[in-house]
Design goal:
95 residues; alpha+beta; SH3 type barrels; 2 helices
Length: 95
């Protein structure tokens, strides 16, 4: 049985203030190694500090800035959110 609360989503979909756990990445070895050296390791807890460019997350006491493209290739399991669902709704202006 699948629980929707445990579905991994791209980090880039979370709102500012949302909390999550690292599930997996789809990054090249160099980028993955760099993020690990900054503290983003398997099952790390993180918090979104800023949504956008750069996308800023806090892991333990460290804040890390990544591009939106990198944030889209980091998959997390959301655990807490500042709003009802914790996900960023894309702007719908302009159709």
């Amino acid at each position: 049985m699948t629980n929707d609360a445990t579905v991994a989503v791209p980090l880039s979909t979370l709102q500012t203030g949302a909390e999550a756990s690292l599930h997996r990445t789809e990054l090249d070895d160099d980028t993955r190694s760099l993020l690990r050296s900054l503290g983003l390791t398997d099952a790390s807890r993180l918090r979104v500090c800023k949504h956008g460019e750069p996308f800023i997350i806090q892991v333990r006491a460290t804040r890390i800035g990544v591009t939106g493209a990198v944030a889209g290739r980091i998959f997390v399991i959301a655990s807490g959110a500042p709003s009802s669902n914790g996900f960023h709704e894309p702007d719908r202006a302009g159709g």
